[in-house]
Amino acid sequence: MTGREPPYRPQSVHFVDQLSLTAARSSVSASRHFLRLALAKWQAAAVEDDVLLIASELVTNAVTVTGELAESPTWAELEGLGLVHVRLVGLRDSVVVEVWDVSDEPPVLEHADDDAEGGRGLFLVQRLASRWGSYRTAGGKVVWAELAARPPLPRRQASERSVARPVVRPDVAFLRRVLLGLDSAL
């Protein structure tokens, strides 16, 4: 399922939590910790195992297509700082995991040979999610997977309510300036 819009209407969103990460191997683990905390906060721990497994696959793919940051990057490599974004969206009866990367290419289910070490991630996503797909954004795409949550998720109070918006690529030039010490805004 590829399109231009998220798989939900903004007015149906109960909660949203989002994390931006550098494209590094550690992003998969960091995203899992983030999602575990968010699911506990929103009383959706019943879907934790499946959400974490799906997120691991989607973040791994996002890091791969974005280009992995070296463990000890040079200053020149920081110029090409690549980011991935992970978002958890809670709806009444489901949660949606969204992962943004810089590639415009939609995800493709490919058949992996029996002795291949990889290539089965999207089959796993397809099997665990009630539905999944992607949509394009400025500067990349979001791959998403929706999982049913029983019982219905609690709704936040009106004063706490977040509005879900498509992931927007951060100002990478600004982040580079901060990392290089040229801007002290953070």
Automatic annotation (TrEMBL):
Keywords: ATP-binding, Kinase, Nucleotide-binding, Serine/threonine-protein kinase, Transferase. InterPro entries: Anti-sigma-factor_SerPK (IPR050267), HATPase_C_sf (IPR036890), HATPase_dom (IPR003594). This is ATP-binding protein. GO terms for molecular function: ATP binding. CDD domains: HATPase_RsbW-like. Pfam families: HATPase_c_2. Residues 23-145 form the Histidine kinase/HSP90-like ATPase domain. It comes from the Bacteria. The lineage of its organism: Bacteria, Bacillati, Actinomycetota, Actinomycetes, Kitasatosporales. It comes from Streptomyces stephensoniae.
